[in-house]
Amino acid sequence: MINIRNIDLNLLVVFEALMQERNVTRTADRLGLSQPAISLSLRRLRESLDDPLFIRTRGGMRPTRRAEQIFSSVAQALDSVQNILQTGTSFSPNQAQRSFNVMMSDIGEIIYLPRLIQKLRQVAPGVRLSVRRLARPRVHDELASGGIDLAIGWVETTADLIRDDLFDEKFVGIVRPDHPRIGKRISLAQFASEWHLVVGRQELASDSLFLAANDKREQALARAFRQRKVAVQVPHFLAVPNIISHTDLICVVPRQLGDIYAELGQVRPATLPPGFGSFTVSQFWHKRFEKDQGSLWLRGVVRELFASPQNR
């Protein structure tokens, strides 16, 4: 019989992370430990449980049947310990020494991150912020595991994720200041005839940008959007203003991002044809950390900075 006194709680933390990451390097990065430390913890666990727990394969660390059997119970036990330790604890921003991990898109890094950093430096100088690029396929697991504390943007919600809507964002077109054909507004005909710069995968940005296409005008706009003439496709927004300023291309961007680019003087905004919809920017966290006082404070800061009046 295994004596629990012989099991270091930290070994179970490593076990949980390995089950979720299936990779020693990623587990080490997530826990802030060295790879040798992870390997040592795994060896101690194997000795204590008398099971290999993980088999190294080309695809990563494959858990044994024993590891799969105990994983759910270990995760629940660690949750219980976390909740017990958080009960009655407080968080003092001006004295805190803590690192928060936040996921956001490159748009978020441009629009929200500067204001968030400025606020944190003012009220919580000991707090550190680590920002990761929003990866929608991984965001749920990262939130559930505690790998990240907060995600800002848009992700698909599940029963165990909590969503807090901040504001609705609209779209604008941007062109170079001396564009020969585009004035303050882009007509539907111009939207269809001009060449476009697209950010990300074109097939992912389709009718979701529009209101329900109930009338002929909106249906025509949706059709023009799907069939637009794409000259260049780039993976992120960083290169957009420089490309637009040197070409006759059009790019559709969130309104706040368009305003920031216009302030830099490289591009100017142009109103899009009527019918473009909007999208909601939200913050997301896992219900496991709903009562975590530090995370609760950070969510409050984000809400204070970015929530629209109607969402407060």
UniProtKB/TrEMBL annotation:
It holds the Pfam family LysR_substrate. GO terms for molecular function: DNA binding; DNA-binding transcription factor activity. Keywords: DNA-binding, Nodulation, Transcription, Transcription regulation. Signal peptide: none annotated. CDD domains: PBP2_DntR_NahR_LinR_like (cd08459). It comes from the Bacteria. Coiled coil: none annotated. Residues 7-64 form the HTH lysR-type domain. Belongs to the LysR transcriptional regulatory family. PANTHER family: HTH-TYPE TRANSCRIPTIONAL REGULATOR LEUO-RELATED (PTHR30118), TRANSCRIPTIONAL REGULATORY PROTEIN (PTHR30118:SF15). This is LysR family transcriptional regulator.
